[in-house]
Amino acid sequence: MTGRKNNRIKGHVDALATGFKYLAEPNRMTLNYPDESMNLKDNYRGFFAVKDKTCIGCSLCEIVCPPKAISMLDLTDAGGKKKKRPMIDWGLCIFCYFCVDICPTDAFQTSQVHDKAFYSETEYQTVHGEPMQYPYDYSKRPDYKEIYESFHDVAPDDPSAGSKKVVPKFDKKRGIKYEHPGQP
Amino acid sequence: MIQILSLLMSVSLVSFIEYILPPILYIIVFPGLIVVLLMLFFMIWLERKVAAKTQLRFGPLYVSKRFGGVIQTVADLIRFSFQEFIIPAGADVFAYIQAPGLLMAFGLLPLIFIPVGPYYANIFPANYSLLIVVPLIIITPIYVILLGWASDNKFSFVGSMREAFLVISYEIPLILSILSMILLYGSVNAINGVSFQIGRGIPGIVLNPIAAFLFLVVMIRTTGRFPFEISEAESEVVMGPYTEYSALFFGIGMSLPYIELYSFSLLFSVLFLGGWWPIVPSAAAASGVVGGLLLPGLVVFIKALIVMAFLVFLRAVYPRYRIDQAITVGWDQAVYLGFAAVALSMALVWSGLV
Amino acid sequence: MSAPQDRTATANLTYDELAGLKADRELVLLIGPAHPGSGHMKIKVWMDGDIIQRVDPDIGFVHRTTEKLSENRLYIKAIPIVERVMLPDTINANLAYVIALERLLGIEPTPRAQYLRTLTSEINRITSHLYGIGLYGIFLGSSTVYMWAFADREPLIDLIEEISGARITYSYIIPGGVRWDLPAGFKERAETVLQYMEARLKDYGKIWVRNPVVMDRTEGVGVVSKSDAIRLGITGPNLRASGVDYDTRRAKPYAAYPNLDFEVPTFSEGDCYARLLQRVEEIEQSIRIIRQVLKDIPDGRIISDDIYSKMNPLQKRMYEMKHRVMFPAYMASMRPAAGRSTASVEAGRGEIFFYLVSNGDKVPFRFRWVTPSFLNLPFFTHVMVGQHLADLPAIYGSSDYFPPEADR
Lengths: 184, 354, 408
Ligand code: SF4
Ligand code: SF4
What we know:
Chain A is 20% helix and 20% strand. With 184 residues, chain A is an alpha+beta fold.
């Protein structure tokens, strides 16, 4: 396709014909986001939560976190025992998953949840020494399960709530085709 | 007494329908203001939609989703009308405010002199229609230059200078192209031109393809379609002459090229596409508003729409030329083409082929 | 063509004085930083009529102190930082840094990891070139090629997303190897995308590369001769488009490139059109490389034994199960022995150069990197003089200059 010699008239005709080709047979790649949303890949790096029981409070995740989105909280559990638990500031997190990977006990429960809207800054901002607000308030919600589930049931703060889920499939002719898994 | 009054009333009603309504219809409804407005809404939407389709996108969609976002432009108009109109500190306020209005007025004026049906001859003097249309079409850019000058912005200034250069360089090809058709039709009355085409059964584009092509190129250039979208080139001069404008005045600047496009396309379909052919109104029908104005007008309008749709589609295919290249084309190749078109017309006329 | 004026003569003048210097003829345009055709930089242009007399690119609007930031952080934390400045081209930035770090640590990645690095790097090169071609489209006024290029990045981005779980900021390459292995069925899917890309390149050729208007705009515009290209120190596709056969993948091989068979396209003209063709040709070569990598990729671990042996038993088990590298605690406490290392990597826009100095501490003592866009900057002042104003976006776009990358 390279090389400089070019017939001008052929060039114009080719360009117009290519334009018409795509006009007649549009190959749309847009995903109409709030109406449709993608089923993300299995290993997509989405929101995650720490399993309270598995974490040993070693602080490695805090040390490795590049934007310092993790800070260790001093908590007291029901039995009056002191423990350290990571608290994640979603306003800072860049989803690099260094923390997930470095955890010696694999205490992180990951998810493919990507769409989450916060109504105000305080919902995701860390206030040092203060417990985080919903849903990462470990003092009020010590059970990771609930937190994890809060990602999965379609919460009102998910902008794609109620959207059609589509699965992107590679295609030789169209690049990406969005398929509706529900349809036969 | 009452009888006289009622007689007078009926006479005036008849005269109203016969003499006063058609010009009003012509100016206000079709092909005048109302249709222009509808055409604007539709054309801007179509341009965005056509470009989007070619570009793997959807284009306007969310305003009236069921109809493919067709009233997106109306929404834009509402948005424009609620925006603040900012006058830059250094602007020449008087010129700055009046230029868009004058621009709009002169953009609309040519519409009156383009006959869209044989009935036109009854309403306006049609004998010199082509002679009047050409200068009216050429005059609008002067106000673009005024616009750019008044804004006190370097990018506006550069943009309006570009417009000035381009207009001057494409005047001669435009005149030559229309001249060759005038020679061919033997009349400066566009209605005669259409009768000529209908009478011979050959549209002007076949009779003189050079002139038609030239006219198309000048049309693309004058209305700032790609690849001649030079005076508003975004990556070079921001928005050209309209850089400083905001709110409705920006909307005027934005819609002006489409109005010009509309009058050019009407003229193109009258001169080159056989006008209201295949509707050939009989002499009786031609003297009525419906048979002489509306039906033929509809045909001309549809032809013009197709021409416009093709021209807005060019956006999806071409980038823009550099200004010196465009000017060179205007002074050089286009002028030769213009002479060739005139020569072709003369040859056709002299040889008696048509 | 008049030569640029002596900068020192006008350096102390204010803007108004400069503008008044030749007030009768000269027009000073400030293109940027808030101009549709400038990117995050300001280009000050002195014009006489439509001809550019002098150009002064003013950069630094998006300077992010990446070097100083990285000198105050653990070694591993610099990976996201170097990615952030080169968003269309993150893998290559990541790779360059990690190679420098590995040389400091004395770790060798495994062969499979090398191939995976090459694979992702080449996919990233295609997306980076598409980004450049697309932006060039909008600079010349063709919104179609802009939309096409950005849409066609999507399948390629999705491919790396399948491997790394992120769309742009992959943080995929770590000292000793890479973080994730290929998912099942990746080869077939990649082949689908490559075939799609090849078919699309033909259409790009028709609507953009061979479009007569594009050729008119770019041919003979902004010509950089071979000797000028070398003298100005420009790099990457821009250098090769001027006829210099220099590619870091060849000159200083890294990753799996020594084992692969590929060509380095060059063009002798050095004008904007050559730079455009250069990118298209490189996309074709990248497709070829990806095919080879997928064919030849060896089996084995994706992380070197040095790192693997430092994992705890749970992490080792995780690796065997999921082929996903867990970080040993070592990652958070790397202390390379005192010394220095360099690394060069051919990124989408040219050569990235890294220079790391360690004094045995947890953080780098000196962290220095040179990005290709920064090296390509001098060429603006050189070629824009004497051209038309409308050529400014043509030249700017053809160089694929990316301000955040240059500012670091
Ligand atoms: S994913 Fe990265 S940024 Fe987010 S908390 Fe974990 S280490 Fe920090
Ligand atoms: S690295 Fe894992 S175990 Fe250590 S504090 Fe973080 S979550 Fe807990």
